[in-house]
Prior knowledge:
The complex is a heterodimer. Chain A is α+β, with helices and mostly antiparallel strands. Chain A has 15 helices and eleven strands. Chain A has a six-stranded mixed β-sheet with strand order 1-2-6-3-5-4, with helices on both faces. A five-stranded mixed β-sheet of chain A has the order 7-11-8-10-9, with helices on both faces. The longest helix of chain B has 21 residues.
Amino acid sequence: MVSGAEAVRAATFANGMRVIVWPVHNIPNVALYNWVRAGSRNEAPGATGLAHFFEHMMFNGTSRHPPGDFDRLMEAEGGANNAFTSDDVTVYQDWFPQGALELVLDLEADRVAHLAFTPEVIENERGVVASERRLRVEDNSQGLLAEQVQATAFVAHPYRFPTIGWPADIRSWRLEDLQGFYRTYYAPNNLTLVLAGDVDPERAIALARRYFEPIAAQPPPPPVRAIEPEQLCERRVLIRRKAQTPILQCAYKAPRAADPRGPAVSLLLCALVEGDASRLHRSLVEDRQLAIEVSGHWQEGFDPGLLWLSIMLPQDADPEEAREALDAELTAVAADGLTEAELERARNLAAVGLWKKLATIDGKAQLLGEYEVFHGDWSALFEAPARIAAVCAEELRSVAKEILDSRRRTLGVLTSAGS
Amino acid sequence: MMVRVPQHERLSLGNGVALILVPRREVPLVAFNAVLRGGALGDPPSRPGVASLVAGLLEKGAGERSAYAFADIVEGVGGSFGAGAGAEAISVRGQFLARDQRLMLELLADALLRPALDGGELEDLAARHIELIKAAKDSDPAELIDTYGRAFLFADHPYARPVFGSEASLAAIERQDVLRYYDEQFGAERLILVLAGDIDADLLARGAAESFSRWPRTVAPVPAPAPARALAGRRVLLVDFPGSAQTYFWVGNVGVDKRYPRRAALDLVNTLFGGRFTSLLNTELRIKSGLSYGARSSFTRGSAPGEFSLRSFAQTENTGRALELSLRTLDRLRSEGLRREMLDSARAYILGQYPLGLETDADWAGALAEIELYGLGKSYIDDYPAQLAAVGVEEAQAVIEEAFPRADSVAIVAIGDAARIRSEVTGFGPLSEMALTDPEFFPPKVV
């Protein structure tokens, strides 16, 4: 068992907001994660990227604080902040010395209750987001291909939208779009606030209550009803771009975060791509030298998502040859599962990975939030080591067989425009 | 409550190995950081990347184990083990479950004392590193801009050389280069070994003494670079990235070294200029103008002065405007100086943030190795808050004069679509040009 579970305190305010606090006193600091259940999953054609744009707007002033105050006041008290948006959630993060707790809670509640929508500020931020998109997508082979693969993998579900938004949508959001999104999703009943660090939990909850409980609850956001239909055949995307090195990406349909097979999916991915001794690294990079790097991730969300494998190829490589070699490995894993040694290795790497995260207040806040938001209960975090240890070879084989099915994947290839 | 260097033990083996033991009991992990002085400074001038390949080869077969067997045992117990070269040292780092600490030490000793440095592994690794550089050019050219910047600014000085190597230099490196590097640059008095976390200090001290106390010293002294001359005047390097959506730029000059006495003031001024979200630079390029997703500045400080640099990017058509704005902001720092309340805000910010970088066993293994490497003493951490508290407006102004370049004396690198931005960047100074696909980071010599 991970120690510390007994120290964690949680509360639900009258307006439906959840607060979870993990007191840790190794350094005099606090990590705050405020989870908003809104991501590109909650968007519609013509207004994609709105959740991400909102992440930017939340730093740009309220009716009580002019633009710039949020960062200026927080930094002057020793705090730093950031935020990220995914398909499923938008998360606001602050890291600050414990003496700044009240200021930070005040600022966080203020922007949930009183956000201002200044037209000039919106135009300015549009430019910033367009620059971010050029950095991550347009000037980036990996990002460009991944966006197309994701858009192809889903036909019905909003997971097909790029989180940063399509370029024309970035140019065309209107004030009303933003106001509507804010009212619907930035409601206390749609938030989970997590604090980890040098705090007294009772005081921290009382302070959070003082600032957040007065904010009125809203009707629950409309549910995302789309269910992606069964994928019937492999889909392929081919991009030609001025680039020196080709890329191969495979996105397999995969379970949602809360699926009971989750630990097996994580271990499968770890066995395939994590470390020099992983199945795909050894085969494709070391033995056959068809690839220069393999990586992967499981998009763990509210709804069934994707398990990604990304294979970077050397210049002049034939992506088809790499694809055949990849398929040979994956077919073998789907048919025979993993060896006992591979399973043990994956279990150990997963356990150490968890400990490394738990070694920081930032990792603790992130993990508590992930378990509360995606698994419905923060305390499930403390069962994670036992669940990882309990995955058996047969369960892994069955998960591999189900996921690594070429009919349920989208294959992306990026090659040089010249070739 | 302030962060202070934790209780630790520093032992010196008879042959000069510095062994530092830091017992901490937060999680059941142990971390190591083995630092070997020398790093890329030991590279042959015409073949940068040798130290980096030597570092990469340390785990590709060592002691009785082949490369595969080495990876199997490390990852089999859930451990991590990796080595990389820096400008002035090679670092080998890793983390294991506490139950495997004896194994960890055995693997480290094998890697440092008995690496195979196999010719076939070298060929594979060099070929892979070449392709990784090409892939970085395709997916994140901004990641390479410091390398272009240093090559352009430092020119003939060792800090100019790309630590990771270039496509051309990696292709030229032979096994002989690697063996010579190991012979000349690996030895007892070069090693700083820090072991931190849930350790059995007695066990590891005995084990380290057994493993390392018979290691001979090196013959060669640690390479010590002379200070580079700062650039007077401006010059511009345009790196052609045809069809790019935006221009990535870097502006820099020679700054200060690791032992710079006004380090607290330097950190304060840089925080205000380009080190945090509300910095002068980010305010101009992002917050007020929406030109860029972000703009940052920093100092690289080594045994000799490294570079000050600022970095940002903007849409191709805004290249000139964004560059101009960056230079004007640099000028403004010098002409307007910093007010007392700005310094107070930066002071609170640094004090509030630095404990977050000194939280884990791996953080402390890194910090204590750095202190030892540069002979800084633990006051470098313990007295830092007091030093920050003492900085006033005059000292900040002195640092601006000493360490920050004037806007009319900087090297500028722009990676972007040359056909569309050439005429704009020409206005900033004498122009050199190269292509992003060139296999070197150095611009062609001007004849």
